[in-house]
Amino acid sequence: MNFRYLMPLAAAVVMGTSSCVKLTEDPKGNLTTTNYFATQKDLDAAVSAIYQRLSVDGAWAFTNKSTSYFGADDLTTDKGLNKQDFREFDKLEGTSTNEGLKAQWNGPWSAIYQANNVLLNYQKVPTTDANSVDARNHSAGQAYFLRGLCYFMLVRTFGSVPIVDKQAEISVVPPRADVAHIYEFIVNDLKQATTLLPAKWSSGADVGRATSLAARALLSNVYLTMAGWPLNQTANYALAATEADAVIQAKQYTLMDDYLQVFRTNNNAESIFGIQFNVGGNAPNRSFGSTSVPLEETALDGSGGWDDFYPEVNFYLNAPKCKRTDETFYTTIKLRNADNKTYTLVNWDNPLTNARHPYYKKFRYGVGDGVQETDNTIIQIKPSTNKTTDVIRYAETLLTYAEAAAMSEGNPSAKAYSAVNEVRHRAGLPPLTPGLPAAAFRDSVVYERAYEFAGEFGQRWFDIVRLQLLPKVLAARSTTAEQNKINSNSLTNPGPRYLAPIPFGDLSLSPGWTQNPGY
């Protein structure tokens, strides 16, 4: 790890000093640890800074947050253009010098050290009554939640990483911790968050802040992951089911009636936790709008698509026939005519298109500030949106419960069927076949997850990793339609590609560290 990430992040540009996760600069972020937490307002500013660390291009604001997840079948990219970072991992030949990989490494570490700053100093804030104690505890709970989330992203992406939970000397390089210990650390952080956070914030001004239910939903996913590779601790299926069921039974979340509206609204009924963005506050989300728009699509005002990512052809062709599929994928490409006023509509595989791929419809619109279009005209294509990135959706919790309950009990119960069928019903699909054995039921739920979360921030990739599905996924990949051909060595030995390499710059500054196998 680069030494600059070992230093405590006391000087932070933060998002706001009120309880709301705002995206405007606050000079209190520049205070030092000697006078930092004099008041709850100071602490609120420091907590807001953790969220802000994740809402920039160098973290989770742009497509590069998914760079190493392009090995999955729900993501591919152009054979040329400026897509080299994504293309490397799409071909399963990623490198430690990949520039896009830095967002996956630096972003979480930056947030972790700001969280450490809060957790090491929050008790300095004086309290006078029960309300002030609660406010201080809520700040700590958010820091625990965000630190746990960031470590969860790091360990699933890079494997063994250091555990740093205190200020570190600049000359000290902490060792990479055992993966099992990292998961224990994550579990402990999320349990702390569960006890310190409210199940629901009392004020609408607190939108975007983590809750105890968000911590439990995340914990259920952590336990589900621990039941798979590399730990294979199958006893954790039961724990995953328990945590997911607690969120379900709280009855605070429901699925949106229309799948596409999940991606056209912010903080909706099924958003358990999301990263907030604000174009006006200089914190735009650039993972929506232009990024999944075909290169050859040009709006009436001259703006165009970026062609960053789209699904593999067979992933699209193997999708279930349902309303959700229609709302997920964009298959009719609008080509502006020579008159610059009208459009010709062609199918995704038409030779006139650049990629001959379907695209993602659900990432086009943002909250009305991405692609603005009619059925036969594109008015404007914007790259910067205010769309929240939903990190945890209620649909995930339902599917986590269904899989974990079936695997822990040995057979899927009626309750497990009910959970997966709730997701299928919204998708426009019939109930899942009754009477399936546990393994077949699990496979059906994983298939459901693939299309419910298609293209969403590593969701598909993490299922591929924990269940070791790369051989199956690679065998299903089109050998003719895909522009980026898989590295031949990775085809015969895909195992090392389940983990991304440690970025070269950080590895070279960390004596005693060794690179992940295969890089």
Automatic annotation (TrEMBL):
Keywords: Cell outer membrane, Membrane, Signal. It comes from the Bacteria. Its main location: membrane. Residues 302-519 form the RagB/SusD domain. InterPro entries: SusD-like_N, SusD_RagB_dom, TPR-like_helical_dom_sf. It is found in: Cell outer membrane. GO terms for cellular component: cell outer membrane. The keyword ATP-binding does not apply. Residues 92-224 form the SusD-like N-terminal domain. The keyword Signal applies. CDD domains: SusD. Gene3D superfamilies: 1.25.40.390. Belongs to the SusD family. This is RagB/SusD family nutrient uptake outer membrane protein. It comes from Chitinophaga eiseniae.
